[in-house]
Backbone:
């Protein structure tokens, strides 16, 4: 099993401890996500030090109106690192950053240009911005991974365009019926699962700091909703992650 989105550099515990528990739970691979330049360097260092870990590098939308956004040009050189597999996370957040949406759009577009130029997948954060996100992604011809999918209104364009759709711990919450129904509609070759550690712990461990081992709880809910076994879906998600992130690439 793979956790396709975790922030190992933001966790309280050392990555080694988290990965030991993850492996004990059957989670043997993790994509760790950079949220800024220093965070991206940290993600790559963790990937260097631990087997089964790869990294996405980017500057998240919450920093779009800060000096960090001006460092976007530094991302390109990070892709000389063999563990850098994706651009992001990037995108739009109209919930926590409605007043900075113009800056977010500019930063988002810069990430998309980089992903297009490097032919790398892009990891998308979208919250309270489904129309704007769909519009911004429309011209992009590369691979799109919608991380922590939480906007059912974005599902139809995502399905039409063949995006990968990744579900996090919030799909397990009692009031998340719309998300679970969305998960049931995602094609077998486009579904992914993640923890978004250390955030959004799934229902059985809700209220605690999240970690990669907990992706098994999200997997169980997704499998039940889709009428599959967790083992079957876990294997499928592994295969999808290989395709989405190019993990089998020589």
Residues:
């Amino acid at each position: 099993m793979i956790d396709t989105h975790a922030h190992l550099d933001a966790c309280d515990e050392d990555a080694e401890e988290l990965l030991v528990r993850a492996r004990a739970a059957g989670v043997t691979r993790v994509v760790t996500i950079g949220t800024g330049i220093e965070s991206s360097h940290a993600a790559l260092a963790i990937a260097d030090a631990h087997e089964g870990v790869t990294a996405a590098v980017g500057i998240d939308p919450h920093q779009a109106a800060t000096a960090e956004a001006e460092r976007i040009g530094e991302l390109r050189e990070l892709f000389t690192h063999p563990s850098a597999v994706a651009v992001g996370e990037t995108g739009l957040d109209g919930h926590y950053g409605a007043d900075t949406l113009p800056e977010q759009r500019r930063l988002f577009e810069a990430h998309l240009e980089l992903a297009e130029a490097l032919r790398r997948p892009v990891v998308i954060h979208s919250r309270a911005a489904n129309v704007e996100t769909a519009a911004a992604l429309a011209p992009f011809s590369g691979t799109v991974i919608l991380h922590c999918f939480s906007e059912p209104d974005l599902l139809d364009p995502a399905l039409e365009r063949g995006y990968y759709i990744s579900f996090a711990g919030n799909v397990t919450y009692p009031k998340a019926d719309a998300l679970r129904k969305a998960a049931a509609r995602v094609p077998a070759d486009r579904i992914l699962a993640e923890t978004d550690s250390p955030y959004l712990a799934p229902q059985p461990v809700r209220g605690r700091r999240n970690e990669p081992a907990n992706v098994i709880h999200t997997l169980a809910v997704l499998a039940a909703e889709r009428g599959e076994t967790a083992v079957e879906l876990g294997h499928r998600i592994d295969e999808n992650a290989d395709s989405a992130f190019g993990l089998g690439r020589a």
